[in-house]
Write a structure and sequence with these properties.
54 residues
Length: 54
């Protein structure tokens, strides 16, 4: 997960040096697996009856 934070810092603070291919790869290769994990975690919270509105 540290890679996502590092990429975020680069995209926010050094965006003039980001190659379009890096952005494309992040969107198409790296975000889908992250989305899968996030959806699984949210489903687990919902099954456990955890209130996500906080």
């Amino acid at each position: 997960m540290e890679e996502y934070g590092a990429a975020g810092n680069i995209y926010r603070h050094e965006y003039e040096d980001v190659a379009p291919r890096e952005v494309w790869d992040t969107l198409t290769l790296h975000l889908p697996p992250l989305l899968t994990v996030v959806e699984a975690e949210l489903a687990a919270l919902e099954e456990a009856g955890t209130d996500r509105s906080v």
